[in-house]
Design goal:
The chain is of the alpha+beta class. Helices cover 40% and strands 21% of the residues. Helix 2 runs antiparallel to helix 3 and helix 9 crosses helix 10. About 3% of the residues have low confidence.
Length: 292
C-alpha cells in the first residue's frame, strides 16, 4: 500500500491561504495523512475526496460557514471544536478569521476496518466537541513534530482509535434515528434525553438500573429501551459504557490518578475490567493511552 498524501485530500491544503507548519509527508503513513497549519480567511469550493476529513481548531473562536451548493450552516467555533466531512462529498466553506488547525485525512479502508468491514458515512459536523478525538489529533500532531521510526506502531494505534471514535460518535448511523411507522417521531424527546444523560453523567461510578433511567423519562422500562435506541442508535447499556470509556480516557490523559482509581471512578469493577473495555472500544490499553 502506498503512502496517503496531500493528493488524496480535497485540496484545502494546497491553497495559497494555507501555511503548513508540518505534515506526515514522507513518513510512510498508508491510511492517514496529518497536517498542522495556519489558515487565513477564505471562501472556496472543493470536490469530493477519497479520504475522510476531521479538522481540530487550535485557537479561536472563529466563525465558519459550510455547505454544498451554498453556505447553509454557520457556527462560531471555539478552540477544540471539530469540523468533520465525509469522503466523496463536495464542500463549500468560508473561514471568517485567522485560524490554526490540525487536519487528519483517513482512508476509507481505515474507517471500514473500524466498522467490521462495513461502509461508513461520517456526519457533516461543524463545531462539535469530542475530547477523545481532540486528544488523538493532538497526539498525532506531536508524533509528526517529533517523528521517529519506532513510533510507527504507536501511530497505527492512534489512527485505529481515531477511526473507531469517528465511526461510533460521528457517523450518520450514530446520529440519525430510524423512522417509526405511522408518522410518529421516533425516540426520546430532547427533554427526556437530557434527563437521562444528566443522570448518567452524575452516576458514572454507580450501578444504574434500567428502571431508574426509565423513571427519569416517565416511560416504562420496555418503552424507554426502545425509544432510547431509536434516539441514539445504542442500547442504554452501550451508551453508559461509551460514556464511561470517554470519562476514563479523559482522566488517564489529564491526571496522574492510579489506573485502578480511574477504573473505580468511572464505574468499572477493577483495573482489568477497564483494560478489557478500552481494548475493545479503542484498541489501546490504559497504560498506553496514558503514555500517549
Amino acid at each position: 500500500m502506498t503512502e496517503l498524501t496531500v493528493q488524496d485530500t480535497n485540496g484545502i491544503l494546497r491553497q495559497p491561504w494555507v501555511r503548513p507548519d508540518r505534515t506526515s509527508r514522507g513518513l510512510g503513513w498508508e491510511q492517514l495523512y496529518v497536517s498542522t497549519q495556519s489558515e487565513q480567511p477564505y471562501q472556496a469550493s472543493f470536490g469530493g475526496a477519497p479520504s475522510h476529513l476531521v479538522i481540530l481548531h487550535l485557537n479561536g473562536p472563529v466563525t465558519v460557514r459550510r455547505g454544498h451548493l451554498g453556505l447553509t450552516s454557520t457556527r462560531t467555533v471555539p478552540p477544540g471544536g471539530l469540523f468533520v466531512h465525509p469522503a466523496g462529498k463536495d464542500l463549500t466553506v468560508e473561514l471568517a478569521g485567522d485560524l490554526d488547525t490540525v487536519h487528519a485525512y483517513l482512508s476509507d479502508e481505515l474507517l471500514r476496518a473500524a466498522h467490521d468491514g462495513e461502509p461508513v458515512e461520517l456526519a457533516e459536523e461543524l463545531g462539535s466537541v469530542d475530547p477523545l478525538v481532540e486528544q488523538l489529533l493532538l497526539n498525532l500532531d506531536e508524533a509528526v513534530r517529533h517523528w521517529e521510526p519506532s513510533a510507527r506502531t504507536y501511530v497505527d494505534l492512534l489512527g485505529q482509535a481515531l477511526a473507531a471514535q469517528l465511526v461510533r460518535r460521528h457517523s450518520v448511523r450514530a446520529r440519525v434515528a430510524p423512522p417509526r411507522s405511522g408518522g410518529v417521531r421516533a425516540g426520546l424527546t430532547d427533554r427526556q434525553f437530557h434527563a437521562v444523560r444528566e443522570m448518567v453523567e452524575e452516576h458514572l461510578a454507580d450501578a444504574l438500573p434500567l428502571r431508574e433511567l426509565a423513571g427519569a423519562t416517565g416511560l416504562s422500562v420496555s418503552q424507554f429501551a426502545r425509544q432510547f435506541k431509536a434516539r441514539t442508535g445504542l442500547s442504554p447499556h452501550q451508551f453508559l459504557i461509551q460514556r464511561r470509556v470517554d470519562a476514563a480516557s479523559l482522566l488517564l490523559r489529564c491526571t496522574r490518578l492510579p489506573i485502578a482509581e480511574v477504573a473505580l471512578r468511572c464505574g468499572f469493577s477493577h483495573q482489568e475490567h477497564l483494560a478489557r473495555v478500552l481494548r475493545a472500544h479503542l484498541g489501546i490499553t490504559p497504560g498506553a493511552l496514558r503514555r500517549a
